[in-house]
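The following record pairs a protein chain with its ligand, beta-D-glucopyranose.
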Amino acid sequence: MKKKLVYSIFALAFLISAFLMFFYGQQTFYVKKETSTTEPKYDYHFVLIPEEEDNEYWRQVEKGARDAAEKQGVYLEYIGPKRANLNDHVRVFDKEIAGKVDGIMVQGLSNEAFTPLINKAVEKGTSIITIDTDLPESRRDVYVGTDNYMAGFMAGKAFIEDTKGEQMVGIVIGRNDAIHQQLRVEGFKEAVKNELRIKIVGMKESNISKTGAVQATYDLLKENPNITAFYGTSALDGVGIAQVIRTMRPYSDPYVITFDTLPETIQLLEAEEIDAIVVQHPYEMGYTAVNMLVEIKKGNHPEKIQHTPTSIIRKNDLNQFLQEHIQENNK
Ligand code: BGC
C-alpha cells in the first residue's frame, strides 16, 4: 500500500514536471509565424538594370520607374553593376533572366553581348524593354528612350549655331563600345560635316565617370593644345570637362556642349562654364517603361519605338526648363 502511494507520488511529480517542461519549453522556443494581412500583393515583378547603380542619371530613371510601379501594383527591383562594366552588366542581366521575372528593362548596349540574351529572355516569356539605348535587331518588345542619333545631330546643329570661325573639337565619349554613345558621335559628325571651319581633332573615353572625364579631357588637351570646343556624350562628361578647363586653362573659354541635366551640370550652365546641354528625360523613361511592360503583360501591343523628347538648352532657357522639370518629377 505504502509502495503504491510512493509510486503514485512519483508518477504525479513526473507528469507535472513533464507538463511544465513542455509548456515553458514551447513558450521559449516556439516562434509563432506572423500571418500578416497587410503584406502587399503584387501583380508583376519587373527588374530595372542600370548601367551603373549609383549613377545620378540612373537614379532618375529609377525614380520614374518606382513612381509608375507604385501606381500599377508592380514589384520593382533595381539592380546593376556597381561600376559601368560590360561583363558585370551581362552577368546581372543573365541572372535576372534565370530568375524568371515578368519583365526586364535594360540598355541594348552592344549587339554581340545583349541580343542573344534579350532573345533568350523573350523566348522564356520575360518581356523586355530596351531603355535609354535600343537594339532594334533584337526581339525586344519595346524601346523607350532618346533617339540617340538625333540627339547627337541636334548637338552638332547647336554647336554650329553658337560658334563662329575655325573650331577644333575634342570629344569625350562615355564608352567606345556602347551603341548609344557611338550614335551620339555619328549624329554630331553628320551635322557638322559640311562646315569646313569645324574639325574634330580627337576623342577619348570617360567610362561614364567624372574622374574618367577629367582624365579624358586632360589627355585631349595634352595631345591637341589647340582645342577650342568640347563635346561630352554622357551625363558626367560635362562636369569633368569643366573641371579640367578651370584648373588647366583658367583664362581660356572653350565652347562646351554636353549631355544631361544633372544638378551639377545645370550649375555649370548657370555659371557659364558649360554653354549648352542636350536634355534627355530619364525620369520619363523609367515611368513609361514600367507602364509599357504592364501593357505588354495585359496582352496589349504598344508602339515598338517610344522616343522620349530631346532638346537643347542654354543659359537663357534655364528658368523655363527648371519649372517644367519640377512638374515632370511631381507627376
Ligand atoms: C546616358 C546613359 C549613361 C549615362 C552615364 C547618359 O547620357 O544616356 O546611358 O549611363 O549618361 O552617366
